[in-house]
Amino acid sequence: MGDIAKGKKSFVQRCSACHTVEKDGKHKQGPNLWGLFGRKTGQAPGYSYTQANIEKGIVWDEKTLDVYLTNPKKYIPGTKMIFSGLRKKKHRTDIIAYLKDATS
User: Fold this and answer.
1) Are 41 and 54 contacting, i.e. CB atoms less than 8 angstroms apart?
2) Which DSSP helix (H) or strand (E) runs through 67?
């Protein structure tokens, strides 16, 4: 299990410019992440996704997020997410723990 506090710090530094996590939060360059776990790719209401995200058809959970956050463009070719990824497993685990806590 990841460290939620460290995950929040990493999220703020690396993700918050493009994403929000709170319920009814606004979309930025990327979608609001509230309700992320258990949702299919490309399904946040009101966000304009690429066809690649919509058609990927996986459900977000710890495993799929870990693979995605390693290299988003490799996991979903055609995504508009510009972030290159998190190479360190510990950083991904911490951010995923934070997201699980903050988005539900």
Assistant:
1) yes
2) helix 62-70
